């Protein structure tokens, strides 16, 4: 084949092309390349090849365009096939004719294959190593291929060959290169965007100068412009250096193209990743450096100015930060000539004014910008002017340190520390002293936790500059009080600071925080903080650089000074660097000291035994020490330790040691261990809970669990019987029998005296005994719930023969606790939590109780007799029971009246005479007692809510969704009512009570949001989903109440809990539109007849927040027209999160936005014009903005907009609304008008029709 090609090439170009066209393209490429490149003389074939190429290419393209006209000489017709020798070989397909369509397609395919060969031969000729061919002779053939490039989109191989030819022609600067660009360049650009290969991006960049040949003002260039703009959002272009350089080059091609590229960048800023945003900044900076004239002015005075103003007036902190990342492309290059001057010229007029406006968001954003650009100065000004400007910046920073908004103070203190760290050497000493003193004296005592936290972190960062150490050495002791701060993150930061000081020469950490304070925190604080303090103290009290005897001696000094701190020190000694061998030595000394004849205090014994227990826990993990531990702690020593341990804490430590090392002889320990478990009337402290867990662990290790559980159930049944006697609560048959039976041998010892108390004794003694039994039962309930958390103990409980008795007893105690929680201080939520937890685990294991039909015989579970159906599961029965109990307390408008009715309903109650007196006494108790009862009620209702939501989530109670929604709404209303009631009565919760209350409310909010998620996902009828709309309003009303009545600090913690559920809140709020066929009617039906008084209160707060921003729009605004609004910073953050989510889905945005518009109509009808303006400002500025393309997609909102606009227009002219009212409505009308006019034009109306 090669020989034939060579001879044809010597003969003529036509013969060579005819022969080459018959070859397969891929396999022939090496042959053709070798053959053509080996030619060194001008033979006849070589001289005629350019003309032949042009002719063959032209004819083949003509065939491709019109395959029906196939008479041309580019390729001779295939000779007829040989005649068949015999008819017997003829098949049925021989007479089938090929259709004209198939024939045309075959001809097209053949033409494409030939063009691939011709294009490759043309490229070999153009770039012949000996330059045998003239470029002018080959240009016609190349241009023929180029001009018809668009026809070959279906053949990527041919497309690539032609594009490569044109690219190499341009790169080789060959004559006529301008004629080979218009079609090939879009192909290469498209290839880089679709194939996403770095090499293609590099190809585009090398051809960048070719783009200057295009007229970007011409309409025909639109497709190419779209391709170029696509490069702006291509991750590959943003990753590669050539890609960023190419996008920067686009700014110089055309003013209009530059605007469109910048507009695309702006649209990506809210959603772009950090790398992409920084890439945009780098691109704009490169473009600014490269261009001159009008284009440079456009970048400076339009693009950058817009970014600066956008960063300051951004609607969210995240959006502002994203814009600043783009601006960082200039800020980080301020050393480049001209950049510092440009930044000053653009930023100086805007920043200083924005730092002093009333809107805290604007102040915060402007402060961030100032800190990024600090120091802001004019490089051409004099030194005096620079010093004056620097002084002005520090003055504003100090002013912002005292800002009324906590978020601004957080940024200010972090920024001041950062500035001092970076510019300490050049800042005047007087300014340093003034600033740093204010930080230490005022910011460390700030009322906001975040501010104090940022202050400590800022000081840690400042320590990184050695120049600051002399000053900080004097000031750091002023931070000492923060080790006792109520916020754990601040205490953690202080310990980090102390650890840093430990490693800095000339600093002594104990001069910053006194040793007694450190030991107190070591003894009582969280594990992480205690571990850090141990690491801090270990070089002093258990150093590795001295002998083991000396180290142990130092530790004994520590534990004698603070036994609790010494015990905690042992727990984290290994993580602090102590060796296991030295700890074994220390254990022997601790045991020896405990058993010594020297009289020791109970506290010191507790510390010694707790420390020994922690060391055992550590050493038992190392197999090599287990034998040594058993030898050291023999059974005789353990009994001696138990006899010495006089307190429950000390006994608990011994139990833990026994269960850890598992000695062979454990006789006699059971009674002591049971004593720890049953003495549980006060179990709220972490220390007491740890003690009981150690007893549980010992019971499990030595197979005493069943006996323990039997005794625990006996105590529960005793309390349940007391609830029956005192409150008339029905007992199940087994409960009655069990109450009459004697308790187990282990509980007899504890209860024999109380069982024989005469009923003739005074009711006070009986009541006191019941109070004690209830307190013990609450402790037992807590233990059961705690035991259910571990897989081993949970299995033991669920397999126990006493499980049913435990369930029935907890049921009775839970009912008494819920129904009478507002009457008695001692009622608590432990029994309810254990009852619900036990039910869930029984349901998951498909465990039911015997005789479950009888549980509803007294109609306690549900007012419906149908609830006693045998098909009901234990989850159904428990939900019925709990909802019936909670209904009594939630629906009782007058607690005293409900108590009286309940007292009269008790038959044969020996305490009925005194109960009314007691309840009145409890109801009219002290404020502290009332708060305690309210806290208990919230905990119980939270436990019920958690159980109902978990049961629905696990599909254990699918038929209760609507009832659970109703219960949740009633619960939230109850909380809202009581929070406001306590606020009106000026009854303030204690700090501890407030923390517990807020923790329950945060948990309730999360579980209510989780219920929304379950309801929205369910396939049930739409009724529960419509109830979701009401529930989400109650949730947001609760959030408002928390921030208004409890403060910003607690509300900000809610935001973190709410964030994962924001999509569910949005879908639930818009459910009435998203689920109904006539969504507009559904919203009106929800809101019909409701004035602003029944409006969700969060609508009003949202409107007031917007009004506070309207007053800052410009100095010409008359701020006296607008009412002052409370600052709801946390709620504002939540609304920003919701708004950001809504913008990602037009359908949901349309549904939710329509509801806001309906709200505006209700406010208008009720003459609350401030609310109208606030809501419309939120809709038109934050939610949708004035963009025609966005409103086109929002059909429901556009429909509602027509009605609200006409009503506002009419009311704005109504004289009865007063001058102020008409002015407010006129402002609202001006806000709506651009959007309304856009809707008119896009709807096909004319101005005359309107």
UniProtKB/TrEMBL annotation:
UniProt-annotated stretches for the region Disordered: 69-92, 903-928
Gene Ontology terms describing biological process: mitotic sister chromatid segregation
Composition skew (Polar residues), residue ranges: 912-926
InterPro entries per the UniProt record, alphabetical: ARM-like (IPR011989), ARM-type_fold (IPR016024), Condensin2_G2 (IPR024741)
SUPFAM superfamilies: ARM repeat (SSF48371)
Any one Gene Ontology cellular component term annotated for this protein: condensin complex
Regions crossing the membrane: none
Protein's recorded name: Condensin-2 complex subunit g2
Bias-annotated ranges (Basic residues): 80-91
Pfam families, sorted: Condensin2nSMC
């Amino acid at each position: 084949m090669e020989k034939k090609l060579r001879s044809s090439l010597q003969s003529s170009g036509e013969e060579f092309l005819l022969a080459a066209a018959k070859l397969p393209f891929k396999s022939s490429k090496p042959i053709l390349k070798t053959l053509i490149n080996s030619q060194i003389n001008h033979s006849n074939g070589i001289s005629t090849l350019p003309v032949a190429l042009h002719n063959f290419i032209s004819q083949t393209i003509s065939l491709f365009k019109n395959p029906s006209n196939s008479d041309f000489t580019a390729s001779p017709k295939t000779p007829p096939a040989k005649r068949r020798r015999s008819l017997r070989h003829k098949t049925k397909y021989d007479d089938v004719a090929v259709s004209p369509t198939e024939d045309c397609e075959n001809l097209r395919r053949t033409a494409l294959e030939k063009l691939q060969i011709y294009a490759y031969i043309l490229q070999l000729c153009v770039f012949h190593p000996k330059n045998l061919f003239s470029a002018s002779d080959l240009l016609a053939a190349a241009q023929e291929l180029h001009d018809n490039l668009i026809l070959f989109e279906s053949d990527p191989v041919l497309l690539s060959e032609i594009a490569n030819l044109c690219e190499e022609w341009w790169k080789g600067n060959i004559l006529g290169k301008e004629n080979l660009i218009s079609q090939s360049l879009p192909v290469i650009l498209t290839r880089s965007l679709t194939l996403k290969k770095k090499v293609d991006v590099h190809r585009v960049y090398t051809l960048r100068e070719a783009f200057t040949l295009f007229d970007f003002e011409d309409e025909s260039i639109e497709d190419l412009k779209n391709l170029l703009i696509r490069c702006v959002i291509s991750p590959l272009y943003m990753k590669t250096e050539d890609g960023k350089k190419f996008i920067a080059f686009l700014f110089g091609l055309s003013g209009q193209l530059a605007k469109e590229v910048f507009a695309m960048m702006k649209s990506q800023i809210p959603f772009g990743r950090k790398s992409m945003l920084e890439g945009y900044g780098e691109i704009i900076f490169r473009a600014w450096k490269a261009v001159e004239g009008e284009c440079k002015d456009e970048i400076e005075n339009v693009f950058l100015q817009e970014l600066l103003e956008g960063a300051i007036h951004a609607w969210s902190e995240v959006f502002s930060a994203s814009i600043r990342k783009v601006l960082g492309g200039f800020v980080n290059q301020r050393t480049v000539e001209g950049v510092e001057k440009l930044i000053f010229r653009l930023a100086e007029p805007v920043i200083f004014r924005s730092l002093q406006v009333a809107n805290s968001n604007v102040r915060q954003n402007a402060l961030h910008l100032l800190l990024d650009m600090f120091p802001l100065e004019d490089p051409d000004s004099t030194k005096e002017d620079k010093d004056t400007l620097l002084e002005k910046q520090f003055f504003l920073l100090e002013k912002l340190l005292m800002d009324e908004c906590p978020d601004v103070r957080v940024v200010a203190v972090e920024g001041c520390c950062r500035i001092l760290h970076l510019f300490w050497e050049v800042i005047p000493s007087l300014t340093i002293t003034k600033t740093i003193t204010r930080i230490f004296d005022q910011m460390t005592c700030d009322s906001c936790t975040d501010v104090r936290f940022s202050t400590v972190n800022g000081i840690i960062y400042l320590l990184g500059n050695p120049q600051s150490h002399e000053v900080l050495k004097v000031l750091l002791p002023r931070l000492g009080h923060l080790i006792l701060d109520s916020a754990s993150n601040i205490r953690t930061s202080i310990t980090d600071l102390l650890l840093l000081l430990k490693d800095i020469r000339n600093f002594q950490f104990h001069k910053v925080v006194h040793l007694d304070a450190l030991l107190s925190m070591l003894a009582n604080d969280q594990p992480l903080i205690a571990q850090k303090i141990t690491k801090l103290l270990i070089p002093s009290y258990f150093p590795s650089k001295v002998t083991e005897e000396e180290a142990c001696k130092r530790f004994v000094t520590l534990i004698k000074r603070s036994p609790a701190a010494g015990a905690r020190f042992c727990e984290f000694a290994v993580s602090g660097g102590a060796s296991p061998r030295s700890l074994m030595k220390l254990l022997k000394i601790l045991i020896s000291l405990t058993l010594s004849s020297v009289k020791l205090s109970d506290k010191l014994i507790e510390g010694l035994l707790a420390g020994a227990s922690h060391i055992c826990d550590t050493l038992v993990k190392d197999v090599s020490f287990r034998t040594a531990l058993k030898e050291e702690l023999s059974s005789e020593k353990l009994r001696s330790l138990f006899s010495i341990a006089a307190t429950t804490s000390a006994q608990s430590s011994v139990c833990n040691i026994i269960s850890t090392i598992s000695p062979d002889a454990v006789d006699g320990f059971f009674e002591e261990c049971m004593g720890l478990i049953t003495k549980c009337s006060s179990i709220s402290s972490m220390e007491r809970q740890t003690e009981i867990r150690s007893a549980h662990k010992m019971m499990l290790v030595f197979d005493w669990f069943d006996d323990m559980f039997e005794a625990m159930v006996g105590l529960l049944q005793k309390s349940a019987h007391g609830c029956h006697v005192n409150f008339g609560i029905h007992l199940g048959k087994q409960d009655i029998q069990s109450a009459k039976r004697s308790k187990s041998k282990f509980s007899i010892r504890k209860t024999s005296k109380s069982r024989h108390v005469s009923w003739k004794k005074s009711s006070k003694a009986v009541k006191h005994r019941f109070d004690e039994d209830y307190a013990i039962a609450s402790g037992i309930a807590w233990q059961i719930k705690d035991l259910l958390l571990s897989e081993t103990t949970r299995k033991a409980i669920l397999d126990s023969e006493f499980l049913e008795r435990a369930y029935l007893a907890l049921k009775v105690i839970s009912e008494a606790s819920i129904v009478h929680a507002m009457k008695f201080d001692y009622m608590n939520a432990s029994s309810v939590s254990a009852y619900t937890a036990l039910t869930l685990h029984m349901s998951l294991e498909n465990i039911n109780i015997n005789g479950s039909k009888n549980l509803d015989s007294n109609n306690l579970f549900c007012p419906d007799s149908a609830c006693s159906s045998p098909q009901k599961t234990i989850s159904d029965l428990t939900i019925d029971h709990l909802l019936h109990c909670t209904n009594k307390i939630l629906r009782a408008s007058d607690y005293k009246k409900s108590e009286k009715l309940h007292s009269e309903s008790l038959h044969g109650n020996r305490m009925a005479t005194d109960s009314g007196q007691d309840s009145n006494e409890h109801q009219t108790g002290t404020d502290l007692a009332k708060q305690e009862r309210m806290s208990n009620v919230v905990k119980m209702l939270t436990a019920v809510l958690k159980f109902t939501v978990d049961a629905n989530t696990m599909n254990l109670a699918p038929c209760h969704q609507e009832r659970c929604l109703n219960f949740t709404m009633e619960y939230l209303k109850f909380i809202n009512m009581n929070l406001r009631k306590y606020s009106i009565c000026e009854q303030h919760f204690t700090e501890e009570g407030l923390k517990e209350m807020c923790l329950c409310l945060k948990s309730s909010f999360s579980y209510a949001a989780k219920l929304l998620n379950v309801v929205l996902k369910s396939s049930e009828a739409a009724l529960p989903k419509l109830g979701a709309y009401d529930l989400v309003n109650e949730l947001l009303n609760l959030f408002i109440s928390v921030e208004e009545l409890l403060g910003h600090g607690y509300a900000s913690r809610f935001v973190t809990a709410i964030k994962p559920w924001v999509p569910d809140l949005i879908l639930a709020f818009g459910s009435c539109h998203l689920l109904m066929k006539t969504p507009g009617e559904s919203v009106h039906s929800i809101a019909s007849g409701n004035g602003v008084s029944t409006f969700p209160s969060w609508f009003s707060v949202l409107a007031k927040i917007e009004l506070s921003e309207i007053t800052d729009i410009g100095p010409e605004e008359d701020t006296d027209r607008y009412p002052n609004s409370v600052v709801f910073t946390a709620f504002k953050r939540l609304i920003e999160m919701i708004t950001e989510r809504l913008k990602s889905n037009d359908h949901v945005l349309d549904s939710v936005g329509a509801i806001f518009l309906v709200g505006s109509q209700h406010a208008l009808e009720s003459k609350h014009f401030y609310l109208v303006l606030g809501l419309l400002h939120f809709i038109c500025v934050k939610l949708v903005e004035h963009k025609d393309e966005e409103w086109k997609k929002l059909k429901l909102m556009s429909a509602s907009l027509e009605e609200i606009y006409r009503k506002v227009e009419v009311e704005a002219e109504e004289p009865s609304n007063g001058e102020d009212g008409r002015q407010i409505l006129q402002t609202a009308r001006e806000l709506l008008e651009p959007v309304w006019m856009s809707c008119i034009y896009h709807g096909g109306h004319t101005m005359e029709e309107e």
